[in-house]
Structure formats: C-alpha cells, structure tokens
Amino acid sequence: MSGAVPLVCICGPSAAGKTTLAARLAEQLSARGRHPLLISCDDYYRCGWSPSSRYGFDTVDAIDADQLRLQLSAVRYRQLNALRIYDMRSRKVSSRLLQHPYDLVLVEGSYGPQHLLGAVPISLVVYVETLLLQRLIKRLWRDVRERQRPASYVIRQMLRQMLPGERRFIQPLKCRADLVVRGYNFDLEPILSRIG
C-alpha cells in the first residue's frame, strides 16, 4: 500500500459519545472490508503537566500537540510501529504496538483536534453534540467508576473547569465540522457515505 492513509477526526465536548461513535464506526467500516485504526487524543495528555488554574485538564494546553501531530503524520504514511498511551488513573505514559494493517485512521477527542485542523490533512471532521445534562451524568459516572475520582471532585471540576474549557476550546470546532451528529443513538450512514 502506498500514499497517505485518510484521517477522519471525531470531535466534540466531554462525554458526548465520541469514543462510542468511533468504536461503532470502526465496526461498520470493518464489516465493509475497511481496516480502521482508532486513536484517542486523550492518549496525548502531557505527563507531569501541572493543571491550568482556570481550566484544569480541560484545555488544549494539556495535550502534547507536537507528539500528537508527529505521531499522526507518521501513522498516515505507516511509518510508526507504536502509539502513545496515557493512563487517566495514574497519569503515566506508555505505548502500544501497531500490530494490524490499517487503511483509515479514526482520531477522536475533545482536546487535540484543535492542534490538528490546518496542521494535518483531514478527510472528514465529525462533531458530536449531546445534551449537557446527559453528558454531565455520563462524565460523573465514568470518572467515579473508571478513573477512581471522588464524586465531589468530579462535580466541582465539571462546573469550574470543564464547562469553561468547552466554551473556549471545543464549541468553535462545531463551525469547522463537515458533519454534526446528535445524541448517543448515532446514525452512521451520513458518515459512512462520506468516507466511502
């Protein structure tokens, strides 16, 4: 295989369903004979980074933009053997081997796409939009259960940092999206037809 691998970017606010959308999209693409590679911008959080006093970790500055752009550029030309992984619990970085062939890259994230638009060729930008109350409940459940964070910390963090961070860094991405999808019950056909 030669040439650059197409890159599809799935962006939107926290707990909107980006990871779920990317996984369902990957399943449908695989069923159609494609070989997608999933990459999460969350894996590019800076190790040892001191949270912003205003936004905490809900800021584009928390992402290692150079590493994200470098790895995505290399992945597009199949010139990378391993991808970065960031553990949300321990906040430590490791890597995972790329062991399977791929012909499409699906990159998803809230913070990270801002560093890619205009810097890395992207075939399609999909913005995921979900009602705020649904997102707050989902993020609270996820952060307490999966990331072992106290509920009071998560609620305070959502109100003081997540929402201001979204207004500043994520909502402007909607204007740059090729497609906007809503809710957790995604209709994948408009996305699949654009990917081809």
Structural notes for this entry:
This protein is α/β, with parallel strands linked by helices and 196 residues long. It has a single domain (7-180), classed as P-loop containing nucleotide triphosphate hydrolases (Rossmann fold). It is 36% helix and 18% strand. The chain has helices at 18-31, 65-76, 113-116, 132-145, 151-170, 189-195; strands at residues 7-11, 36-40, 82-86, 93-97, 104-109, 124-129, 179-182. The strands form two sheets. The protein has a five-stranded parallel sheet with strand order 2-5-1-6-7, with helices on one face. Strand 3 and strand 4 form a beta hairpin. Helix 4 (132-145) packs across helix 5.
Helix coverage percent of residues? 25-40%
Radius of gyration: 16 Å
Which structural class matches the secondary elements?
alpha/beta
Low-confidence stretches: none
Report the order of strands and helices. Answer: EHEHEEEHEHHEH
Please provide the count of β strands: 7
- CATH topology name, in short, is Rossmann fold
- Oligomeric form of this entry? single chain
| Assigned CATH architecture | 3-Layer(aba) Sandwich
* CATH secondary-structure class: Alpha Beta
Through-space gap between termini = 18 Å
Numbering strands along the chain, what is their spatial order in the largest sheet?
A: 2-5-1-6-7
* Nearest-integer average pLDDT: 93
